[in-house]
Amino acid sequence: MSQFSFVFDASLLVRDGQGRYLPATADQILEIARQVIDQKIQRGALLTSPVLVKDYLRTKLAGFEHEVFAALFLDSQHRLIEYVEMFRGTIDAAAVYPREVVKTALRLNAAAVVFAHNHPSGNPEPSQADKLLTQRLKDVLALVEVRTLDHIVVGGESTVSFAERGWL
String of b and e for 109-130 (b: at least 16 CB within 10 Å)? Predict the structure, then answer.
């Protein structure tokens, strides 16, 4: 977790199982941040702002030491149906299975999807494999009338949006 540095003070404490208050670890802080963002952006939240989506995904995917491939499944009005962490990988790759993505989209009755994954290296620049996978997922989902709105790569505090770069 070298891309993050935290300064702990007395206000950042967690209670252990024995009732003692101890300084929070970086992992505990990230887990609480994920819980807070889940409370802030719940099912039915309108996700039409690219800034909001990027902030949400940065919070959800920050700090993992392995790749996580996730999807935001949306209804026809771009309201959140569900955030799903679909696949976990190693420090520099995650196997993604289009069949499983389609099954989840159909089960949730999604009309649109935003893909996201993290680069634990901190560099959000998409690889050629990321670009090919995104196109394959977009093509497969189009067959069942689910639109791919974006694929956002999170690297540390930075993000790259396929839509903003004109790749979708």
Answer: ebbbbbbbbbbbeeebebeeeb
